[in-house]
């Protein structure tokens, strides 16, 4: 820049023309203009007009994420992912990520179940037999009785109960409703940072079992970081009840819909089969089996693993081509109370996970933190896990997000 001009140069004034896609920069001059009196206003305007001739286009910063909110949902598209979080009238379930909406932009593959990280009830082990019909509401809204084979008289319903829930670990609801089925419309909060988009959904359980109180609060944070093929999620419970062994049930990462393995080729469970985990071919899931027959995990019966990873290898049902893994990583293995990987009637693999399962007093809280997303290999899952291991909570504010223990 010539010296006379440099002496008068003070900086750039940038603006974004409505009709253009490039920000423009105006060279602003120092010079005697800034120190002139009102009588020299025409000279000031003339100098600015001359300066405005020198306009320089600057590269537009790439918009890495788009958030579109409607009455029914929040649609998020990042540089690498697409996802929808339901607010009302979901395609399938409320809570978590809506069915079929989670898409890997790198490969085009999508989630193939009924959504991701969906929430059921607040529960504990034990029988609900003595409650009888007290907890059944005519309209279906209520706590609900746990489907259990000993409660069923009809042979077909008894068989389904055995396949769905097994026969070795009876459970009951503390508070309801089952959120994925019966949660009323919600108004999630969206926070946008320079390198993340976060969504917070919260809901109070409306119904309680006999002798218990309704009103425990469930909170779910979902964070989409820039440049990643995964999201980070926390489920937290603030309890209004006492329980000797309270747990929250969800799907981690989510169920798998398939017809004899057409949508996936194998499942990986890090916590079974030794230090390297186990890879289970799709053929193992061609016939229904109960969750306590095989591929199950219970903290009181299994060794707590180094990592808690579970995922399935996607497959193109048209070509048979393998795609990426879709996996759920629970970042602190000891929070997992029980985990299923079972084939139910109706061509659905259930990946239920129950977290906490420890004594809770009214006024206390517990949480679990997860990473859910697409990975090209088990090794990539492990590397991601190791960068974030040991965390159970997620903190988000305008300045950023962070995992905490």
Furnish the topology, listing elements before pairings.
Blueprint: H1 3-8, E1 9-15, E2 24-29, H2 41-52, E3 55-57, E4 66-69, E5 73-77, E6 81-86, E7 103-104, E8 119-125, H3 155-165, E9 171-176, H4 179-182, E10 189-192, E11 196-204, E12 207-208, E13 217-225, E14 230-238, E15 243-251, E16 256-257, E17 264-269, E18 278-281, E19 297-298, E20 308-315, E21 322-330, E22 336-339, E23 342-344, E24 348-350, E25 352-360, E26 365-375, H5 378-388, E27 393-397, E28 400-404
Please outline what is shown here.
This protein has helices at residues 3-8, 41-52, 155-165, 179-182, 378-388, and strands at residues 9-15, 24-29, 55-57, 66-69, 73-77, 81-86, 103-104, 119-125, 171-176, 189-192, 196-204, 207-208, 217-225, 230-238, 243-251, 256-257, 264-269, 278-281, 297-298, 308-315, 322-330, 336-339, 342-344, 348-350, 352-360, 365-375, 393-397, 400-404.
Could you characterize the architecture of this molecule?
This protein is mostly beta strands. It has 2 domains: 3-57, no CATH class; 68-124 and 177-404, Beta-galactosidase, Chain A, domain 5, CATH 2.70.98. It has helices at 3-8, 41-52, 155-165, 179-182, 378-388; strands spanning 9-15, 24-29, 55-57, 66-69, 73-77, 81-86, 103-104, 119-125, 171-176, 189-192, 196-204, 207-208, 217-225, 230-238, 243-251, 256-257, 264-269, 278-281, 297-298, 308-315, 322-330, 336-339, 342-344, 348-350, 352-360, 365-375, 393-397, 400-404. It has a 9-stranded antiparallel beta sheet with strand order 10-11-13-14-26-21-20-17-18, covered by helices on one side. A hairpin with a 3-residue loop joins strand 4 (66-69) and strand 5 (73-77). The longest helix has 12 residues, at 41-52. The model is unreliable at 1-42 and 44-61 (pLDDT under 50).
């Amino acid at each position: 820049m010539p010296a006379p001009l440099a002496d008068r140069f003070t900086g750039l004034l940038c603006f974004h023309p409505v009709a253009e896609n490039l920000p423009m920069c105006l060279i602003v001059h120092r010079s005697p203009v800034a120190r002139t009196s009102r009588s020299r206003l025409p000279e000031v305007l003339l100098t600015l007009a001359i300066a405005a001739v020198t306009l320089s286009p600057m590269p537009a910063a790439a918009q890495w994420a788009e958030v579109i909110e409607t009455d029914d949902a929040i649609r998020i598209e990042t540089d690498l992912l697409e996802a929808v979080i339901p607010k009302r009238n979901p395609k399938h379930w409320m809570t978590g990520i809506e069915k079929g909406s989670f898409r890997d932009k790198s490969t085009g593959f999508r989630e193939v179940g009924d959504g991701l990280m969906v929430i059921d009830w607040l529960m504990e082990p034990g029988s609900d037999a003595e409650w009888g019909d007290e907890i059944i509401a005519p309209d279906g809204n209520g706590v609900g009785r746990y489907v259990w084979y000993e409660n069923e008289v009809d042979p077909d319903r008894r068989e389904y109960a055995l396949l769905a829930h097994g026969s070795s670990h009876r459970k009951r609801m503390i508070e309801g409703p089952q959120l994925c089925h019966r949660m009323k419309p919600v108004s999630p909060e969206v926070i946008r940072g320079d390198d993340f988009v976060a969504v917070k959904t919260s809901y109070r359980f409306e119904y309680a079992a006999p002798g218990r109180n309704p009103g425990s609060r469930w909170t779910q944070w979902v964070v989409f970081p820039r440049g990643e093929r995964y999201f980070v999620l926390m489920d937290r419970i603030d309890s209004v009840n006492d329980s000797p062994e309270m747990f929250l049930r969800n799907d981690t990462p989510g169920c798998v819909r398939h017809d004899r393995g057409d949508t996936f080729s194998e499942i990986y469970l890090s916590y079974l089969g030794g230090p390297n985990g186990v890879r289970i071919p799709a053929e193992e899931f061609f016939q229904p089996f109960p969750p306590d027959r095989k591929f199950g995990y219970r903290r009181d019966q299994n060794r707590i693993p180094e990592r808690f990873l579970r995922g399935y290898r996607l497959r193109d049902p048209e070509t048979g081509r393998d795609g990426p893994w879709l996996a759920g990583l629970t970042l602190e293995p000891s929070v997992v109370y029980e985990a299923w990987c079972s084939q139910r009637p109706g061509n659905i693999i259930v990946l239920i996970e129950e977290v906490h399962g420890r004594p809770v007093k009214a006024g206390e809280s517990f949480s679990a933190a997860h990473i859910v997303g697409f990975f090209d290999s088990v090794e990539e899952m492990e590397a991601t896990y190791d960068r974030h291991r040991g965390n159970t909570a997620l903190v988000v504010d305008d300045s950023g997000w962070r995992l905490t223990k």
